[in-house]
């Protein structure tokens, strides 16, 4: 039986987080949009009110995840740059230095598990809600679910890609003198360390 007083690293217990306030806020935004949508369906017929509150919560979740939670919990950040002249869009992925690099840090296992679990579960739940809306012929609610899917899937794909490039640059960088060289290959990754 697991020791309740001294849980193992990576256990899904927010008290083991290196950044508990960031983690709880991140999870609160993730859960709040779903709860407002579900409870709004059950307790009220006011579509506009539920739509506005859910969109605001989804926007706050998108911003907080992209700019704060991803950086603090797993050391990843992404953004999209559009060149003024040609209008080409470029995705930029940034990762904190690996633990074996100068200035690097170890990512807390609990933060990492909560982050990735919440990141992948929310789009899956919105897909299930989209199916329910289609089956119930509630197409007016489907518009809200589609907006939620776009926002959550964008963050999910971007952070998955960011993690993939981060791991690849860490492998390449471990064989070189400096990992910053690998982070600048192709302009895909930025070598800057962020706090």
Task: From the structure above, extract its key features.
195 residues; mainly alpha; 3-stranded mixed sheet; 5 helices; 3 strands; 61% helix
State Rg: 19 Å
Strand content: 5-15%
Mean pLDDT comes to 82
Runs in which pLDDT lies below 50 for 5 or more consecutive residues are 175-195
Helix percent reads 55-70%
Count of DSSP H/I helices: 5
Biggest sheet descriptor: 3 strands, mixed
Main location: Golgi
Subcellular location: Golgi apparatus membrane
Family: Belongs to the TVP23 family.
GO cellular component, one term: Golgi membrane
Protein model, in words:
- The protein has about 200 residues and is mostly helical.
- The protein has 5 helices and 3 strands, in the order ααββαααβ.
- It has a 3-stranded mixed β-sheet.
- A hairpin with a 6-residue loop joins strand 1 (about 75-80) and strand 2.
- Helix 1 (about 20-45) packs antiparallel against helix 2 (about 45-75), helix 1 packs parallel to helix 3 (about 110-135) and helix 3 runs antiparallel to helix 4.
- The longest helix has about 35 residues, at about 140-175.
- It is globular, with a radius of gyration of 19 Å.
- The two termini are about 40 Å apart.
- Mean pLDDT is about 80; it is low at about 175-195.
Can you summarize this structure?
The chain has 195 residues and is mainly alpha-helical. The chain contains five helices and three strands. The protein has a three-stranded mixed sheet with strand order 1-2-3.
Provide the fold topology:
Elements: H1 20-43, H2 47-74, E1 76-82, E2 89-95, H3 109-135, H4 139-174, H5 180-183, E3 189-190
Parallel strand pairs: 2-3
Antiparallel strand pairs: 1-2
Keywords: Golgi apparatus, Membrane, Transmembrane, Transmembrane helix
GO biological process, one term: vesicle-mediated transport
Organism: Meristemomyces frigidus
């Amino acid at each position: 039986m697991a020791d309740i007083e001294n849980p193992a690293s990576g256990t899904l217990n927010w008290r083991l987080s290196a950044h508990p306030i960031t983690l709880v806020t991140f999870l609160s935004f993730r859960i709040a949009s779903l709860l407002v949508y579900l409870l709004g369906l059950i307790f009220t017929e006011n579509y506009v009110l539920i739509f506005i509150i859910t969109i605001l919560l989804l926007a706050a979740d998108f911003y907080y995840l992209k700019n704060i939670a991803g950086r603090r919990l797993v050391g990843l950040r992404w953004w999209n740059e559009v060149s003024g002249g040609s209008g080409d869009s470029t995705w930029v992925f940034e990762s904190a230095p690996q633990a074996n690099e100068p200035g690097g840090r170890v990512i807390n296992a609990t933060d990492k598990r909560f982050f990735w679990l919440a990141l992948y579960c929310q789009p899956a739940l919105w897909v299930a809600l989209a199916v329910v809306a289609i089956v119930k012929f509630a197409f007016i609610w489907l518009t809200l679910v589609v907006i939620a899917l776009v926002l959550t899937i964008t963050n999910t794909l971007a952070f998955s890609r960011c993690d993939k490039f981060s791991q690849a640059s860490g492998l390449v960088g471990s064989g070189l003198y400096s990992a910053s060289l690998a982070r600048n290959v192709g302009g895909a990754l930025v070598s800057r360390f962020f706090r």
